[in-house]
Every structure is written in structure tokens, then in C-alpha cells.
Write a sequence for this structure.
């Protein structure tokens, strides 16, 4: 499938639909996680005291899922911000499995075509069972769509686009680390900053 020939990815109607689907799914998961807490509390209040030891382990699972869904909801606007700055590009063979079992995406450095830049996806428990890990291991992922600058951040999708998610270098999003300043043109730095990255 060919990438849309638009100035930015978000100008493509299919991309806007994919973003809305992603937002709806993440918001639904967030609401479900909140409802799960209510259900757990209701079960605790109606359960005999001697059986509470069965319900307390479930609380920790619910807390983890709530934190995960909260982080994903917070990333919805970030996805759109990136898609409004960068166009889609098709990258065959970009996805692979990292040594820790998560997914790694390798893209060409925009200003040094002889070099590649890697971005990881998934560093939490259970990430080894994500869609991307399953599909890469089975050999079903031959091409990905990428919008962004791999030296900073971007959005990866299944061609179409489908299954949007954000990837980023830690230096572009973590205040505890020094932002990347070397090997980046002023124009690339400005675009990355407009997309929400820390650029130094």
C-alpha cells in the first residue's frame, strides 16, 4: 500500500480516522480500568472478610492496568501533534525483535543516509505479547509506516494506516537526560520541537 502524498500525515483522511479509532480505544480502556476499581471495591464490601486475601492480588493488577491505560490516554494528543508535523514514509524491514524481547524499529538518519537510528517499543511487563512482537516474530510485518524524526520521536503504524503508536528517544522526552543537540540541522530541530520533542 502506498503512503499518502500529503504534506503531513494528518492531512490524510485515513490517518485522521485511524487516530480517532486509536483515541476511542484508549479512552475506552481507561474508562474500563476505572470501572474495574469500582467493581473491585463493590466485591470487597460484599465479600466475607476471610476471602479478602483472594481479592487483594487483583488490586495490584488493576493498579498496573490503570497506570498503563492512563499513560496511553496521555499520549493521544502527542500522536496527533507528531502527525500534524511529519508526513508518512514507508519503511520496509524496519521492525525486528530486540534482545529483551520487545520490538525495535530501525530508520535511516534523515541527515546521514549511511546511518540508521533505532527506536524501541515496549519496556513494561507483558510487552513481549504485544501485536508487534507477535507479528514480527511470525514474519508478517514486512513494511511499517513512520511519521517523525527517529532522532527524536515519531508515530509508527501498520500500512493503511492502522494501529498507531508513538515511539521516542529518551533524550527527547525525559527531563532527566540531556537533549540531543549534535548532528541535527536547525530546521530539523524546529520541526521536532513543534512535534513535542525536547531539542536542547
Amino acid at each position: 500500500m502506498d503512503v499518502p502524498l500529503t504534506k503531513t500525515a494528518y492531512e490524510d483522511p485515513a490517518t485522521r480516522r485511524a487516530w480517532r479509532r486509536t483515541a476511542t480505544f484508549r479512552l475506552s480502556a481507561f474508562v474500563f480500568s476505572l470501572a474495574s476499581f469500582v467493581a473491585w471495591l463493590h466485591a470487597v464490601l460484599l465479600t466475607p472478610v476471610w476471602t479478602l486475601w483472594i481479592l487483594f492480588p487483583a488490586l495490584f493488577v488493576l493498579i498496573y492496568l490503570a497506570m498503563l491505560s492512563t499513560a496511553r490516554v496521555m499520549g493521544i494528543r502527542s500522536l496527533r501533534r507528531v502527525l500534524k508535523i511529519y508526513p508518512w514514509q514507508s519503511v520496509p524491514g524496519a521492525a525486528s525483535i530486540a534482545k529483551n524481547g520487545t520490538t525495535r524499529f530501525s530508520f535511516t538518519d534523515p541527515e546521514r543516509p549511511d546511518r540508521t537510528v533505532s527506536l524501541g517499543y515496549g519496556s513494561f511487563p507483558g510487552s513481549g505479547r504485544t501485536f508487534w512482537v507477535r507479528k514480527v516474530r511470525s514474519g508478517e510485518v514486512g513494511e511499517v509506516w513512520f511519521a517523525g524524526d527517529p532522532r527524536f520521536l515519531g508515530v509508527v503504524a501498520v500500512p493503511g494506516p492502522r494501529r498507531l503508536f508513538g515511539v521516542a528517544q529518551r533524550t527527547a522526552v525525559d527531563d532527566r537526560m540531556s537533549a540531543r543537540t549534535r548532528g541535527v540541522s536547525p530546521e530539523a530541530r524546529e520541526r521536532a520541537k513543534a512535534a513535542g520533542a525536547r531539542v536542547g
Q: What stands out?
A: The beta strands are 89-92, 95-97, 103-109, 112-121, 143-149, 153-158, 162-168.
